[in-house]
Design a protein that fits this description.
alpha+beta; Beta-Lactamase; Heat Shock Protein 90; 3 domains; five-stranded mixed beta sheet; 8 helices
Amino acid sequence: MRLPDRFRTISFRLSLGYGLMFGLSALVIMGVTYVAASTQMQSIVRASIGEDLELFVQAYEEGGPPALREEVEERVDSAAADRFFLLLGPDGERLGGNLPASAWKLGSSAAPMTPSPIDVSAGGTGQSLYAEGVQLGGYRVMAGRRSDILEEIRNILLSAILSGCVVTVVLALVGGIVVGMGPSRRVDAIAATTRSIVEGRLDLRLPVSGRGDELDRLANDINVMLARIETLVESLRQVSADIAHDLRTPLSRLRQGLEGIGRAGDKADLERAIAGAVSESDAIIETFNALLRIAQIDAGARKARFRTVDLSELTERVADAYGEVAVDAGHRLTSKIEPGLTAVGDADLLTQALVNLVENAITHVPAPGRIGLAARRDTGGTVIEVADDGPGVPAEEREKIFRRLYRLDRSRSTPGNGLGLALVSSIADLHEARIVVDDGRPGLIMRLVLPAAA
């Protein structure tokens, strides 16, 4: 038989387990209490009987049999209904007390009795007693207490213990079920959202209650993962569209070049046509290689190579290497780098990102232009900045320039494949860094904000 879903949940199983554990704990605690209470009550009864016997022994030692008989009678006259006494003479006749002679169980032994139930007839009513007796010369004297009162107390205590265990288990189960209803509803909501996401709704996110508990932490982590997946899927869609759009032109030129080979009239025309086709093929291969490298970076495999990187030295090397390149392009490259800057990352990838930013400025800034390379400490990290005095980028297109194969309309005639800044964006994501694009008034400022080394 299949149990209802609610009774197969982890919360119900935990509630059941905790209920049984609490019940067992209560049973052990109350059992120990029962045994301790029973032992203590028996000790009190024995002590009370012992006090009576001590008085009888004292009376016999001080006044002999007459004093003993008088003490027994006084105890009988003043005794409560639960106290019983018996005095037997040397020949076994009953000399005093409120018990019949048949109640004596000691026999000829002079040792005290161990308290035990004794069935007697006292006042026409059967009683069960705890009793002890001593033999004084030829006389025998016994003191006893009713055992039924002690048994009643024990039964009441036992009933309370069993009732307490049952109540504890029931309350634990009910409380566990009530407490577990909240997490169960939240898990149901998460499951419903997950099913919608599986059906293609990547824009949905798991509900977060705001309590900050383990379910909220799990939901937040999954939401971060979903946001990343949505970004990657959207990027894949965009790349597919961009490849279809941007590679159509070079492929068409390659086809035309190949057709030109067949129409070449002489050797010189043939060589030019072949050289053009090879050039177009190289450009296409370079584009696909760049896309492949971006995909590898996005996969995160390069994180295994992360080390502490000296950003000051890295930035100095890039500034030295591209100083002459900028001059050849008609620009002037200046640098301002603070010493001792570090970050955790891949030195080769960080160098590639910085090189792409510098090359982007050199390529797209009309000559003569000024390009500034700076590195400095900032709150919680390091900022590497590339600034120029070129035409800049319109505010509405600043987010788009990091898309793969995206190029501004005015830049389509310049060399490149539109993947340089996309590669920078992927490297930044891998290093958990931020890219900030600001207006230089005039020109453009690109900042790579890296977290500080731990």
